[in-house]
Amino acid sequence: MMLQEQKLQDWLARLAENEDYAAHPLMAEFRALADEHLKLMRQLTKIAKISDRMQTDTRQMAQALHAASQTDPLTELPNRRHMVDRLESELCRIRRSGGGGFALIMLDIDHFKEVNDAFGHAAGDHVLVEAAGLLRRNLRGHDLCARWGGEEFLILLPDTDQIQAETVAEKLRGLIAHHSIAHQGHSIAVTLSLGVAAYRPGRTADDCIQAADDALYIAKRAGRNRWAAAA
Fold first, then answer.
1. For 168-196, how does the pLDDT look when each residue is reduced to its tens digit (9 = 90+)?
2. Do the bridges between strand 144-149 and strand 152-158 make them parallel or antiparallel, or are there none, so unpaired?
3. Which pLDDT score, from 0 to 100, does residue 64 have?
4. In contact, 177 and 170? CB cutoff 8 Å
5. Rg, the chain, Cα only
6. Does the pLDDT at position 44 exceed 90?
């Protein structure tokens, strides 16, 4: 647009230098039309810039909304929707390439209601945030830890078998059990119950999640602060 404007201005300057054109009765009207055309070109340039900014803002907003829809606002972990999408992707990868399987760990903070009752809901939120940070920092970069709901978390371990996943579950159980969470002068101790389930051929995403959830309740019934394997 700026190049076109410059060309028009150069052309007008050349016409002004020519006595025949400069003295023509319609030259004044022509100049007025040219000036109006230049104004319109400048307005179009401004509109184009505004449109570009709006498109950029729209893309950024869409990206932010997508990230928000995939993230738990309290812990900043991926949420249930994100986990389900990722799990479906893992299943597609296995069906497509026949690559290594994966394992799921469903875990729950034991007696979490007692934390809220004794210290308040703000303390409960703090415990969730601290536990989420510990879990995230002690997993591999390509593992996924999501807040499943309430005080439950679901961990996806790609390329991991049952024995390896059980080792991870015990590591995480020990980390939380030996970590005291400080909040407003209080020292809050919590433990985890965990259910471990490795992928089995033919299982759907719901089947895999249910197997890990069933194993979690085995651990709870066995006394909590422990992990259990899927039947």
1. 999 999 999 999 999 999 999 999 999 99
2. antiparallel
3. 60
4. no
5. 32
6. no
At position 227, the amino acid (one-letter code) is W
> What single letter denotes the amino acid at residue 2?
M
Whole-angstrom distance, CA of residue 226 vs CA of residue 177: 10
Q: Does residue 19 have an active-site annotation?
A: no
d(CA 160, CA 28): 82
> Which letter, b or e, does each residue of 183-209 get, where b requires 16 or more Cβ atoms within 10 Å of its Cβ?
beeeebebbbbbbbbbbeeebebeebb
Which of 51-55, 60-64, 141-145 has maximum average pLDDT? 141-145
Closest residue by Cα to residue 144 from 84, 197, 101, 95:
84
| Residue 152 host element (H or E) | strand 152-158
Choose, from 151, 152, 166, 170, the residue flagged as catalytic: 151
Give the pairing type, strands 192-198 and 144-149: unpaired
Q: pLDDT per residue over 70-115, tens digit each?
A: 899 999 999 999 999 999 999 998 888 877 799 999 999 999 999 9
| Residue 143 CB-half CA count within 13 A | 17
Taking the C-alpha atoms of residue 219 and residue 179, their distance in angstroms, rounded to an integer, is 20
Give pLDDT, residue 67: 65
Single pTM value for the model: 0.74
What end-to-end distance do the CA atoms of the chain give, in Å? 70
